[in-house]
Amino acid sequence: xxxxxxxxxxxxxxxxxxxxxxxxxxxxxxxxxxxxxxxxxxxxxxxxxxxxxxxxxxxxxxxxxxxxxxxxxxxxxxxxxxxxxxxxxxxxxxxxxxxxxxxxxxxxxxxxxxxxxxxxxxxxxxxxxxxxxxxxxxxxxxxxxxxxxxxxxxxxxxxxxxxxxxxxxxxxxxxxxxxxxxxxxxxxxxxxxxxxxxxxxxxxxxxxxxxxxxxxxxxxxxxxxxxxxxxxxxxxxxxxxxxxxxxxxxxxxxxxxxxxxxxxxxxxxxxxxxxxxxxxxxxxxxxxxxxxxxxxxxxxxxxxxxxxxxxxxxxxxxxxxxxxxxxxxxxxxxxxxxxxxxxxxxxxxxxxxxxxxxxxxxxxxxxxxxxxxxxxxxxxxxxxxxxxxxxxxxxxxxxxxxxxxxxxxxxxxxxxxxxxxxxxxxxxxxxxxxxxxxxxxxxxxxxxxxxxxxxxxxxxxxxxxxxxxxxxxxxxxxxxxxxxxxxxxxxxxxxxxxxxxxxxxxxxxxxxxxxxxxxxxxxxxxxxxxxxxxxxxxxxxxxxxxxxxxxxxxxxxxxxxxxxxxxxxxxxxxxxxxxxxxxxxxxxxxxxxxxxxxx
Length: 599
Prior knowledge:
A hairpin with a 2-residue loop joins strand 6 (564-566) and strand 7 (569-571). Helices cover 64% and strands 7% of the residues. The longest helix is centred in the first third of the chain and has 38 residues, at 144-181. Helix 2 runs antiparallel to helix 4. It is an alpha+beta fold.
């Protein structure tokens, strides 16, 4: 018997049968183990009672079987065993740390957070596609075409397998619905049992991987079509990026920073440029149209200024507000994007074979991404740890006043380290920290720590459009609970905001009507506090904001319509578009349906 399953000819029935058995067995084992962990969590028995152990086992069972599915017909046995062992240890360690560093009061799965699952999935995928090509060529660093072929093959296999598994469940739901038509609900009951759904899903996914593996030419055909289509989007994306950068000198950077999401959007633009450039280059051996070659070179050059802008925008936010988990993750993304930008720019301007340095860049950046992900998921660069330490340091340095400090972040987003920081603040020599920290520790919801004064900044208030001109918002509205409405609607999306005042219930006190681009939100003062009490929807397609600006807003004559009482429930009648048009009286106005809450 040979040492590697792949040394047997792919057409050998014994090799195909062996790979089929191993993949289906791996899928079945994964499904049964996931069901066992699910039952332990539901029944609150071992290993669910030990949070770190449960998190470690969950991630090992969830991710390491995919290495068997991907490598059983390609890797040598000893390589597969060693790589699976390394991956299992890494997944267990990162899972245990993720649970330990999370909220001590949360269950194991809840303490992990989606970023841990994403990071381990990325580590397993990238790591496997560094190991398999190297093992196939019996060298530490394989040739780039091998990396390209194996990575994209498995990517397409994964997408097709997910689609196949989804189609399997759609057929089961269809079968359940058909049999229920004739009074047979056995299938419906079956698919609702976790002891069926977990193993069935895992086995069908494994079967799909095997089916696509023995039809490698079909997978390569799908890959070729997909990459060809993506490649011809590259000229458009390069043109968009170039036009954006050429427009910036005329608009300045201020509009960019006002979006409050500039860094994220710029990084997404980077990702598309990198993806489409790779789609055009492929493995570097294919003949490529001249327009795609020049577009790829342009994309490589454009990555540099776009990444610089992303990094600069992020640095401004960090300078203003300090570190947060999202900003640390964004900084890691900027670091990775910078590596790609430098490598692709060199590839674009270097003479000789077009974009040849892209190959070296992609291989090197795969190792960099692994290092960055490991740092983010360990104490070395744990976003929660770094954020908590930075925010507490800003508090002690006086950059943030104690009454303005975000104690809720430490309590509900800082994990174990955030709680420890709150305990330390509760005992701090500065008495101004003690009471807020103690309150945060005892809180069970972030809403318990919300500040009573929700007043927007003076600059934000000055930019709010209140109509007709000359009207001003009540001071109590700005100070009290109604202020959140201005931030959520008018400060973040001023282009869609319009406000007017109207006494809609004729009690002598104006209500505040906030148009957010789709509905009018009605905010009324009750018992000294402003609360949203209803909404008015536009059912005629008119320009509500223009009517606000012109002051053409008034109450319509009463409508002969009452609510319907059904038992102890009050049902409100809301007319259809035709119905509310028919109720309009007087000059042509856009009728609206006003629904009051709590009546």
